[in-house]
Amino acid sequence: MAEMACRFCGFSFSSLSKVIAASAAIFLLVGCSGPKNKEGLQSQKPETFQSYQLSIDAERKSFSSLIESIEVVPLEETDNSLLTSASRVLKHRNEYLVINKGDEEVVFFDSEGKYLRTFRQLGQGPGEYQSINSFWVKGNVMSIYERRRSIIFRYTLFGDFIDSMMLPAQVGHVGEYEGEYIVEFNFNPILDSMLYKFGVLDKELKPKDLYLKTAEFDAAAVWSNENSVIPYNDGMLLVRMYCDTVYYYSKGQFQPLIHLNFGKDWYWEDGAIIKKEDYGVIENSGQAWDVITSLSDELIYTKSVIGFSHYEHHLINRSTGKVARMDLSKDASTEFALNNLGWEKGKWLVSMSAEDLLQLSEELGYDLPNLDQLSRSENPTLVKIKFKDSSDW
Fold it and tell me: Dihedral of CA 67/354/89/257: which sign?
């Protein structure tokens, strides 16, 4: 079986089963399958709810056949900007802030990929974090959430420490919105015993609003490396593990926004509690059981985990409802290794290795600028992908 990364723990599919066997006492909780659980939802809807039917058996469309054009931003490689990955990137003003996860640092590049500076305050002393689990920028303030100690650290964009704040509970991910903090509890108890999936904390980090209540909890939560609290238009998207629904929070209103309808190909039922024996069933189920979702105003990209065997990729036009099942195969046994970084002005932003970019460019008939430099660099490259109109899919 091919080694494929599992988004929530960083394990391969094969190693995941070993970890679960060694952790038989841990039960994971799920309470999300479609917009059935409306606990805490309010009637006013700033965005229109949409449901899209996805098939894991539909005809595949080659990745390159769906692309109209690409733009390439090589990330300059210097002694101070060697990247182990570019799996999380934030565009702020005219700079790209790349989370170099292996070294727990933020590397700054200009809009053309030229290296600017590196920020790293790793440690256990005052103003030092132990990991970067959530990251955002508001104005001239850069915030880092460290999950282990449940602390938000704030710095200037040039790395000067401002202050730190401790959350009332350990959360999966957190983001700042209009002076408040949107958090994913992932079934970790808040206020000793109350169990919710998402919540809003006020500027003093006290619970203000709590959403999607559940009465079920058993042993432990598992956190995702994938950000689950994402800025979107004038609100925040909330995306949970093992969930086929994306929620939206804006100006005090919380609602389901997008439902991905896999039909019989979705493993979880509403309110399911995951037990260790589920994974033995999941492995050979041939069903989707986790999905990463990335939205623009026009398009949606999804990456679904099927059993323990492979990923499925879909591209959805939100206006027409047309869906393309994307084939990211490079050859018979491997896929293009793309890191989904969200959307920039309607274009899908990803990071790619030079090797993958060279092959994709050949398929598109695109002449890469600075080809020699790209071929020599070990840094990933940022690629902005403009897709064709859905009528051409």
Answer: positive
What are the structural domains of the chain?
13-392 (2.120.10.30)
- In which element (H, E) is residue 64 found? none
Residue 101 in 3-state DSSP? helix
State the DSSP code for 125.
S
- Lateral strand order in the sheet of 161-166: 134-138, 141-146, 151-156, 161-166
Q: Tell the burial category of 144 from Cβ atoms under 10 Å away from its Cβ (0-12, 13-18, 19+).
A: buried
Q: For residues 294 and 340, is the Cβ–Cβ distance under 8 A?
A: yes
What pLDDT is attached to residue 28? 38
Residues with Cβ within 8 Å of residue 102, at least 6 apart in sequence: 84, 85
User: Of 218, 185, 179, 215, whose CA–CA distance to 28 is shortest?
Assistant: 218
Q: Which two tokens stand for residue 393?
A: 């899919």
CA distance 326 to 67: 11
Whether residue 29 has pLDDT greater than 90: no
Token duo for residue 281? 């069933």
CB atoms within 10 A of CB 61: 15
pLDDT at 351: 97
Residue entry with tokens 């949107």 = 182
In this predicted structure, what is the pLDDT of residue 43? 34
E-only strand ranges, 104-224: 105-110, 115-119, 134-138, 141-146, 151-156, 161-166, 173-177, 180-184, 196-201, 207-213
Tell me which amino acid residue 246 is: V
Backbone angles phi, psi at 59, to 5 degrees: -60, 135
Q: Alpha-carbon distance 288 to 247, whole Å?
A: 19
Evaluated on CA atoms 86, 91, 92, 94, the torsion sign reads: positive
Q: How far is the C-alpha of 266 from the C-alpha of 260, rounded, in Å?
A: 9
Average pLDDT score over residue span 197-205: 94
- pLDDT tens-place string over residues 307-366: 999 999 999 999 999 999 999 999 999 999 999 999 999 999 999 999 999 999 999 999
Query: By percentage, how much of the chain surpasses pLDDT 90?
Result: 70
Contacts of 60 (CB under 8 A, 6+ apart): 325, 326, 327
